[in-house]
C-alpha cells in the first residue's frame, strides 16, 4: 500500500475514533443533564427533560453511525475497493468543515485519495476514446 493511501486510511480511523468518543460524550452529558433535571420527579414533565434525553440519544447514535461508516471506508481503502475511494473523498470533504482537527484530517484524506498513487492503488481505468461507429449493412 502506498504511503499516501496509508496516511489517508489512518486519518479516517482517527476521525472515526473522535466521532465515537464524541458519541460517548454526548450520551454522558445529555444523560446527566436529564437526570439532574429529574426523571421521576415533578420536573420530569418539563419539556427540557424530554429533549435532553432524546436529543442526547439521537446525537450519540448519529455520531457513532458516522464513526462506523468511517471505519468501513478505511477497511475498503485497505482492500483497494473503488467505492471506498469515492466515499473517502466525500468524507474527506465533509471533514474539512471541522476546524482545526477535521480540516487537517480532511486534507490528509483528500491528498491521499486524489493523487496518482490512488489511481494506481484503486485501479481506476483510463478512459479510452469511443470506438468508431459501424455503419449498418446495406440491404
Q: How would you portray this structure in words?
A:
It is a single chain. The chain is mostly helical and 139 residues long. The chain has one domain. The protein is built from five helices and no strands. The chain has helices at 3-37, 47-78, 82-95, 101-113, 116-122. α1 runs antiparallel to α2 (47-78), α2 (47-78) packs across α3 and α3 runs antiparallel to α4. The chain is elongated and about 90 Å long. The protein starts with a helix and ends in a 17-residue tail after the last helix. The relative contact order is 0.17.
Key features?
139 residues, mainly alpha, 0% strand, 5 helices
Secondary structure layout:
Blueprint: H1 3-37, H2 47-78, H3 82-95, H4 101-113, H5 116-122
Helix pairs in contact: 1-2, 1-4, 2-3, 3-4
The number of distinct β-strands equals 0
Compute the CA-based radius of gyration: 23 Å
The gross shape turns out to be elongated
Question: How many strands, which pairing sense, and closed or not: the largest β-sheet?
Answer: none
Whole-number mean pLDDT = 86
Distance between the termini: 57 Å
Number of separate structural domains: 1
Give the DSSP E fraction (strand runs of 2 or more residues): under 5%
Assign the structural class, choosing from mainly alpha, mainly beta, alpha/beta, alpha+beta, or little secondary structure.
Answer: mainly alpha
The low-confidence runs, each spanning 5 or more residues with pLDDT under 50, are none
Q: Which sequence of SSEs, written as H and E, runs from N to C?
A: HHHHH
**Count of helix runs:** 5
Helix content: over 70%
Amino acid at each position: 500500500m502506498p504511503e499516501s493511501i496509508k496516511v489517508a486510511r489512518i486519518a479516517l480511523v482517527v476521525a472515526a475514533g473522535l466521532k465515537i468518543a464524541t458519541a460517548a460524550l454526548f450520551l454522558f452529558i445529555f444523560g446527566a443533564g436529564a437526570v439532574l433535571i429529574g426523571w421521576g420527579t415533578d420536573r420530569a414533565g418539563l419539556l427540557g427533560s424530554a429533549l435532553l434525553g432524546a436529543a442526547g440519544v439521537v446525537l450519540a447514535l448519529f455520531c457513532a453511525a458516522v464513526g462506523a461508516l468511517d471505519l468501513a471506508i478505511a477497511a475498503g481503502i485497505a482492500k483497494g475497493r473503488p467505492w471506498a475511494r469515492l466515499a473517502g473523498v466525500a468524507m474527506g470533504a465533509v471533514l474539512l468543515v471541522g476546524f482545526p482537527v477535521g480540516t487537517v484530517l480532511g486534507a490528509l484524506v483528500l491528498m491521499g485519495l486524489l493523487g496518482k498513487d490512488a489511481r494506481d492503488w484503486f485501479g481506476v481505468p483510463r478512459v479510452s476514446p469511443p470506438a468508431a461507429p459501424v455503419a449498418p449493412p446495406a440491404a
